[in-house]
Structure formats: C-alpha cells, structure tokens
Specification:
Shape of chain A: globular
CATH class of one domain in chain B: Alpha Beta
Strand content of chain B: 15-25%
Number of strands of chain B: 9
Largest interface: A-B, 58 and 49 residues
Radius of gyration of chain A: 24 Å
CATH class of the largest domain in chain A: Mainly Alpha
Largest sheet of chain B: 5 strands, mixed
Number of helices of chain A: 19
Strand order of the largest sheet of chain B: 1-2-5-4-3
CATH architecture of one domain in chain B: 2-Layer Sandwich
Number of helices of chain B: 4
CATH superfamily of the largest domain in chain A: Cytochrome-c3 Hydrogenase, chain B
Largest sheet of chain A: 3 strands, antiparallel
Helix content of chain A: 40-55%
Oligomer: heterodimer
Structural class of chain A: alpha+beta
Distance between the termini of chain A: 25 Å
Strand content of chain A: 5-15%
Shape of chain B: globular
Strand order of the largest sheet of chain A: 3-4-5
CATH superfamily of one domain in chain B: NADH:ubiquinone oxidoreductase Nqo5 subunit
Helix content of chain B: 10-25%
Radius of gyration of chain B: 21 Å
CATH topology of the largest domain in chain A: Cytochrome-c3 Hydrogenase, chain B
Chain lengths: 441, 245
C-alpha cells in the first residue's frame, strides 16, 4: 500500500480533511500550512510519558483548545484470542492473564467461570476456592487502583503519589507471589478451582496488609484531596454523564462516578459476592475528581471484602471433585526445588498404571468441553470484563472473545477531550484508566 | 447447521503438506488443508498410523428450544414480539442453553431489532455489552456469526443476539446508530472476521495494521508460524504441531 492510501486528503466545505490511519505523519503535516492556518494537528504517542502504554492520540488544536480528538489503538495487539484456539482449555489461563496486565486475576477468573459454565460445573466449585478467588480479586482491585492513583498522580504533577502507590502495590504483588509463585501473570485461577492452595504465610501477609493499608489510603487522601493543584486539575474536567457513559458503553468507576451504582458484584453476583457486606461508592460530579473519589472509596470497600473473606476461610479442597477435570496431584515444592508430589509419584509408579495413564492424558490432551456458548461478565477494576467463550466439543476453545473494559472505555476519549484544554486530555484519558495490554489483547 | 466432512484423501492416508508459511514467515499464501476440529491430532502427515488422524467428529447441530423458555426469557420474547412488527420474519431461532437466551436474528433486521430492544419500555436493553464474531467454518453455510450481548440495567437481564452471514456476502447493518459503543467493537469484528457493517461511520481496521491482508481470526487463516529448532529437534508452529483436538 502506498503512502497516499494511509492519509487521503479531500476538500470539504470546512477545509481540507485528512483520513488519518497510520504511518502517515509526513503526509498529514506536509499537506497543511502551519503559518497561515491557526489549526494545529498534534500527534501524541504511541510513545509518550503521559499516555498509558502505547496509545496514540491525534488531536486537532486551536490554540490550547482541542477541537477534535481521535484515539488510535492496536499497537499492543498480541493475538491472545487467536492463540487460545491452539491450546487446551487449562492452558488458556496462562494466555488470558497477560491481557490486562494490571488485573490478571480478573482475566483468569472471568475465563475460568466461562469454562466452568460450559462444563456445567459452576455450582460445584468448592467454597474455599471461591473465597480465595474473591480474596485475590479484591487484592488485585486495590493493586490496580493503586497503579491508577500512582500514574495519574504522576501525570498531574503529584510525583510523590507515584512512589507511595507503587510501594503498596509491591506489597500486594508479594502476597500474590506467596500464593502462586509469581508476582504478575500468575495463572493462579484454573478451570475448576485454583492452581494451588493459599499457604498460611500468605494469610499472615494479608493480615499485615489489612493492618496498615486503611491508614495509607487516608494518607493518600490527605496528600491529594486538599491540594489546590490536584483540585484544579481534576474538578470539572472531562465531564461525562451517565447517559453518555451508557451510550458509549462505559462501565466501572467512570459510570459510578456519574451517579449510576452499576456494579456487577451487586447487580449480577458471581463467586458468592452476594454474601459479602460492602457498599458501592458513587458520586454525581461525573468528572475526574469524582472518578478519583470513587476509586479511593472502592479500595476501602475492597479491604472490607478481603477481611470478610479471610475470616471465612476454612480448610478444604480448592479444586472440584471431578477427576476428569481436576489434575490428580496436589503439587508441593520438593527438596529439589521442583514442583512435585511424592505421594502421587509413589502411587502411579508403585500401584496404579491406570492413574499414570489418566494423569498423562489429562495433562497432554486435556478435557473435552460440551459444545455451546456462554457470556460471562465480572466487575474488573476498569468496568465490565466480559468473556464470550464458544466450544465445539473439543479440547481447545473454539473461540474466546474478551470484552475488555479498556477497549470499550477508550471510545470516550473524543467525548472527554473535545472542547477542553490540551492539558485536560491527559487528566481525562488517565481517568478512564486504560491498560493497553487489555485493550489490544 | 449442516454437517460437512473433510475432502476424502486417496487411500484414507493423510497426505503430507509443506509447512504453511515456513518460507516467508508472513501470513502464508494458502490456508491449511484441514478445517478446525478435524482428526484426532490436528495435523496431517505426521506419520500417524493409528487411523485416528482421519477421524471425523460428529458435529452437534444447534437446535431451537421449545417454549416455555423459563425465567425472564418468555417475557423478553413476548415483549419483543409486541414491540417489533417484523418479529416473525426477523427471528430465525430461539436457543436457551446454560441459562442464557440467544435470539438468532436475520442479519438484515439486526439494527431494527436492536432499536426495539433498546427503546421498548418492557425490554430496555440500554447497554450493548459486547459485539464479537465467531467463524463456524465447515458447520454453517453462513459461517460468520456476529454475536451481540445486550444488558438491561433496568431489569438486570441479559440477552444474546446472533446474526449469521456468509463469507461471500458478509454484509449486515451496523448498530452504531442505536448503540454508539458498537463502533470499535464492530471495527474489531471487521478487522478479525471481515464482516462488513453497512452504515458504520468509519469501518477501518482497528487492531491489525491498516495494510494487513486477510482476516486473522477466521478459521481458515493460517497462523504463518515458522518451525523453531530447540536442542536439535525441530518444533513446528502451533497450527502444524501434532496435538489433540
């Protein structure tokens, strides 16, 4: 394709109009006279310190005012959905966790609930597995909101917020490491339950976190909420009301900051959320300030849920009973540092050839999932995370689609930015909390 | 859906194929020989003598569900029948499976049905949660399905609409005028499956580069991987690797 096809220019009654697509910057700038025209076209990103990941914004400016904004995505497309179709259902978890890298537990849980519903075992998930799922999701929600607070603080000039936000997030990642062995992209939630049990050290670490975290959240508020610069940069900026949110499909904190208390944990509960006592924070200001307050309060509510989940943790299985789905051995780290189960090794080597065959088949071939399709949605930190999973009866997903909230929410960029100031594009974009790994998948 | 088996190969023995995309590294020149789900091991020509490589799995046809559908599904069905005049003509099939309602809609009617679903006081599906494509290659004549997940915040309900088009004529009306949120999601379905949404304000690729050829998530789209040498052994790319289907 030649350069001319990338950015075609055509004359309209309002002047020359370019259709901007990609790799076309010279054409756009070259066909435009910056001296006699007041209009400026600015290309922000894909690499810019104030864009989240590789997001590109094409802005048309008149002075400092943005007259037109267009978001260009796709720079981080990794073909996760296509890859899933070439791996078995269990392996899928390791792929989906890498989509929205700030909310891996949510990606895994949504996928696993979808697989479980396709299998028809969603009612058989053990209590302990569900409780740990809730526990991990809420910790992950706090970690994700902390990164939002840290990066948004940095972008609006509150640099110390970045250091504090990442410091506390690091503590949560340590908890994940104790539970799963990995800080990020854990593949901890598996179809049927969990990869491994939460060890006692993990519980102790979470208790420690619960002790200091409420004070830290108060600290962030003291640091930001009274700060004149912070107030001026957030209040009345990037307004989007509930009607606009629904039309554009915006969910999560942005919708709740516009006054609509739509939280899937309450309205369409899963994983037993209906049994936890928590509130859905809302605001009616519908600006960046409101989104900041909603997120701060959501962290407090998540702490409440984490505490309740910890208190109801009872010893028990963390995987479904069904031996056609659950892997036979509960692995533990052996003396050689490798994951192994001596008991299981003794059994398959000494007593049961059939158990060995079964184990081999289950790991290499996987389980078959009855044909059909489901749509599962959960409340991720950024809004509705939906998984549309289709099975053709085989050992691999026939099709999995991620309705990622970052992808859908980024459509609001023109609505937030147009008519505002250039500097507010940063605040407005940040208030959507887009994660490009999830957006582009 | 109709059942179509793979083309018969001489003598029932899989014929060896050159590795797809092995030379260019780019999206390969021709689609792989076997449609998805065929055989036991996915690839032909792997020296398999068990006979399982020629296995054709029975495909389950999607059949309509009888009334009553249960739950709120009957209410939604009746309300749509009342709200939308062309109802009988537009609904192809109603499927209730795993506690979810799917209305199969004739593709040319999808925009009107969405309009009724959104605006009628008894339906109120205000939010279009997701639009995605699925390619049912080999099991459906109209292989490209577009799937809409609608959510009613008022009634806390979900309904799935599904519209099927053929790869030769992949046109259906865009629902962006009803649900502006479908904008990027329809662009993604176009990008990945080549479904053309008539009336979309700016139907261009969104995730793939603008000059990309082909529609990557179609089932006959080759992965274009290259074999990798690892410790002396050559590991074929995922779509050519022998593995259970």
């Amino acid at each position: 394709m030649s350069t001319a096809d990338y950015a075609k220019a055509r004359e309209t009654t309002e002047g020359k109009v370019f259709t901007v697509t990609g790799g076309d910057w010279d054409t756009v700038v070259g066909g435009h006279d910056p001296v006699s025209e007041e209009r400026i076209v600015v290309n922000m990103g894909p690499q810019h310190p104030s864009t989240h990941g590789v997001l590109r914004l094409v802005l048309e400016l008149e002075g400092e005012t943005v007259t037109e904004a267009r978001a260009v995505v796709g720079y981080l497309h990794t073909g996760i959905e296509k890859n899933l179709e070439y791996r078995n259902w269990t392996q899928g978890t390791t792929f989906v966790t890498r989509a929205d890298y700030l909310a891996p537990i949510f990606n895994e849980t949504a996928y696993c609930i979808a697989v479980e519903r396709l299998l028809g075992i969603d009612e058989e998930i053990p209590q302990r597995a569900n409780t740990i799922r809730v526990l991990m999701m809420e910790l992950n929600r706090i970690a994700s909101h902390l990164v939002w607070l840290a990066t948004t603080g940095m972008e609006l000039g509150a640099l110390s917020m970045m250091i504090y936000g990442f410091r506390e997030r690091e503590f949560i990642l340590d908890i994940f490491e104790i539970a799963s062995g990995l800080r990020m992209n854990m593949a901890y939630i598996r179809p049927g339950g969990l990869a491994q049990d939460l060890p006692p050290e993990g519980v102790a670490k979470i208790r420690e976190f619960l002790k200091f975290m409420p004070k830290r959240i108060d600290e962030y508020e003291r640091l930001l909420s009274g700060n004149t610069v912070w107030l001026q940069r957030t209040q009345g900026v990037a307004y989007l009301d509930a009607t606009g949110c629904l039309a554009l499909g915006i969910t999560g904190p942005v919708l709740r900051a516009a006054g609509l208390a739509w939280d899937l944990r309450k309205t369409m509960p899963y994983c037993g959320y209906e049994t936890y006592d928590f509130e859905v924070p809302t605001s009616t200001d519908a600006d960046v300030w409101a989104r900041y307050q909603v997120r701060i309060n959501e962290m407090r509510q998540s702490l409440r849920i984490v505490e309740q989940a910890l208190n109801r943790l009872q010893p028990g299985p963390i995987m479904v009973e069904n031996r056609k789905i659950a892997w036979p051995a509960q692995l533990a780290v052996g003396a050689d540092g490798l994951g192994n189960s001596l008991e299981h090794v003794a059994k398959i080597m000494g007593q049961s050839m059939e158990a060995l065959i079964h184990h081999f088949k289950l790991v290499t071939e996987g389980f078959r999932v009855p044909p059909g399709q489901v749509y599962v949605s959960i409340e991720a930190p950024r809004g509705e995370l939906g998984v549309h999973a289709v099975s053709d009866g085989g050992t691999r997903p026939y099709r999995v689609h991620y309705r990622d909230p970052s992808f859908v929410n980024l459509q609001a960029i023109p609505a937030l930015a147009e008519g505002g100031l250039l500097a507010d594009v940063i605040a407005g974009g940040a208030s959507l909390d887009p994660v490009m790994g999830g957006c582009d998948r | 859906m109709t059942t179509t088996g793979p083309a018969e190969e001489p003598g029932g023995v899989p014929v060896s194929e050159p590795p797809v995309g092995a030379t260019s590294g780019a999206p390969a020149e021709f689609p792989p020989a076997s449609p998805a789900g065929r055989g036991m091991f996915g690839v032909a020509g792997s020296g398999d003598t068990s006979g399982f490589g020629g296995l054709v799995r029975r495909r389950v046809a999607v059949v309509g569900s009888p009334r009553p559908y249960g739950g709120y599904f009957d209410e939604v069905y009746d309300a749509l029948e009342e709200a939308y005049p062309g109802f009988d003509d537009a609904i192809e099939k109603v499927v209730v499976d795993r506690g979810e309602l799917t209305l199969h809609i004739r593709p040319e009617r999808i925009r009107e049905v969405c309009q009724a679903m959104r605006d009628d006081a008894a339906l109120r599906f205000e939010l279009c949660s997701s639009v995605s494509g699925v390619d049912y290659l080999g099991t459906d004549e109209r292989r490209l399905h577009v799937v809409y997940q609608l959510t009613s915040l008022t009634f806390r309900r979900r309904v799935r609409l599904e519209a099927a088009v053929s790869a030769d004529d992949p046109h259906l009306p865009s629902v962006t005028s009803v649900y502006p949120t479908a904008d990027w999601q329809e662009r993604e379905a176009y990008d990945m499956f080549g479904v053309i949404f008539d009336g979309h304000p700016n139907l261009t690729r969104i995730l793939m580069p603008d000059d990309w050829e082909g529609y990557p998530q179609r089932k006959d789209y080759p992965l274009g991987g290259v074999p990798v040498e690892y410790k002396g052994a050559e590991i074929p790319p995922p779509d050519l690797r022998r593995s259970y289907q």
